From TrEMBL:
Keyword Nucleotide-binding tagged: no
High-level lineage: Bacteria, Pseudomonadati, Bacteroidota, Cytophagia, Cytophagales
Entries under PANTHER family matching the protein: SLL0814 PROTEIN
Organism expressing this protein natively: Hymenobacter psychrotolerans DSM 18569
Pfam families in the cross-refs: Caroten_synth
Protein's name according to its UniProt entry: Putative membrane protein
Annotated keywords: Membrane, Transmembrane, Transmembrane helix
Transmembrane segments: 32-50, 56-75, 82-102, 122-142, 154-173, 215-233
Length: 234
């Protein structure tokens, strides 16, 4: 074979073009995930806020939560064993503090869960652990953008969680996520939320894994607007 044929240069994508193509693909996947979440939340908002009988939409609340958390975790940059350990511990702690809560009334006040959040164990929906993970993780990731010490980040993330809970509570009662004794949301609930959230945020900061997720801020804002909007309609 002639040398001119043997040494023909092979075409290769320049590194900068490959990086640009990869970044473009990542942006497209992010937009797709945001679009799916927006579709589900807008549909749920319209159904719960304006339908005469919202029971059809309420049955999809656990599915919506699972979809949201599934997409959120898919955008975790590095899924190490330590990361999954954080997820498991956070879900377990979030679930069992609620078990203690409904049985004693010491943490959050006296309340009971309704059927909206799905299957229960020990009187607490299994989705509650998933919800705690979503809130701790999203707010913890958002606080990492701040150039402040870890404890102050934990404090900021905790305040974000309590703020979201304040928007969520009236909606949760209206749609039977849970019910409070005497139909009064006690101040103790927010104190308990603050204490447990702060502990979990400190745990988040002290657990070593990559704390970057492009979808986390979008999910937090979507949840905030969803519950705040429904609260205005109630």
């Amino acid at each position: 074979m002639p040398d001119s044929i043997q040494h023909l240069p092979t075409e290769a994508t320049p590194p900068n073009e490959a990086a640009t193509a990869q970044a473009t693909a990542q942006r497209r996947r992010l937009r797709l995930a945001q679009g799916i979440l927006l579709l589900f939340h807008v549909t749920g908002f319209l159904g719960l806020g304006f339908a005469e009988d919202p029971s059809f939409y309420l049955q999809f609340v656990p599915l919506n939560l699972l979809l949201t958390v599934g997409l959120l975790l898919a955008y975790q940059t590095e899924k190490t064993a330590t990361f999954w350990w954080f997820c498991a511990v956070t879900m377990a702690v979030g679930f069992f503090v609620e078990v203690i809560g409904i049985r004693t009334g010491l943490l959050f006040g006296f309340y009971q869960y309704g059927p909206t959040l799905g299957t229960k164990w020990l009187g607490v929906p299994l989705m509650i652990g998933v919800n705690w993970l979503m809130l701790v993780y999203t707010t913890g990731v958002m606080a990492r953008y701040l150039p402040i010490p870890d404890f102050l980040r934990a404090l900021v993330a905790t305040l974000l969680m309590v703020g979201l809970d304040a928007c969520l509570e009236p909606v949760a009662v209206r749609y039977d996520f849970w019910q409070w004794r005497f139909d009064v949301i006690p101040l103790q609930n927010f104190k308990g939320w603050f204490a447990v959230s702060l502990i979990l945020q400190v745990f988040f900061n002290r657990t070593h894994f990559a704390k970057h997720n492009a979808l986390a801020p979008f999910i937090f804002m979507l949840q905030l607007l969803f519950f705040f909007g429904l609260g205005l309609l109630s």
